[in-house]
Amino acid sequence: MEFGELMARDALAREESYGCHFREEYQTADGEAQRNDAQFSTVAAWQDQGEEQEPLLHEEKLAFEAVELTQRSYK
Fold first, then answer.
1. Structure pTM?
2. 3-state secondary structure of 11
3. Of 36, 42, 55, 64, whose Cβ has the fewest other Cβ atoms within 10 Å?
4. Closest CA to 15 of 36, 32, 46
């Protein structure tokens, strides 16, 4: 149950659609997932803070040198 809650928390924190984290409010005119690489090109891990405390999000920015990030099509 805790893992499911963290997955939902992470998905709601992302202001984009990406892979299985599709959000209707973040889609292209064609209904494709709309990514936000400028803000969410990161590696993220959630740290348990114990009972009755919110988990803590740790993020590290990713740098892509050999690959250009582009909008994907899932059609």
1. 0.63
2. helix
3. 64
4. 36
